[in-house]
Amino acid sequence: MSENKEPMFEKCSSERMCTWLADRVESLNHRGKGFVPVYVLSKDENRRQALESILYGVKYQQARGDNGIIINHCPFCGQTPGKFAEEMKR
Ligand SMILES: [Zn+2]
Question: Model-level pTM?
């Protein structure tokens, strides 16, 4: 039996959050301090599905009532999570 305890780890990309961030984000409607994922509906002409939910970014809220700020860099892997990353490159 091989024991490979190295966890699968992927850095944040325009399509997904890294494992560490994904493990630490709150639910979509979370109010209060924490990381909250932001999804947008996108029409993808190349796919059959008319609308798909895509990760736009992850915002950090400081307190209840704070709308949060989209993070430029994931504090865990240093990459930018979500489509927001592509907009930053422009
Ligand atoms: Zn990350």
Answer: 0.79
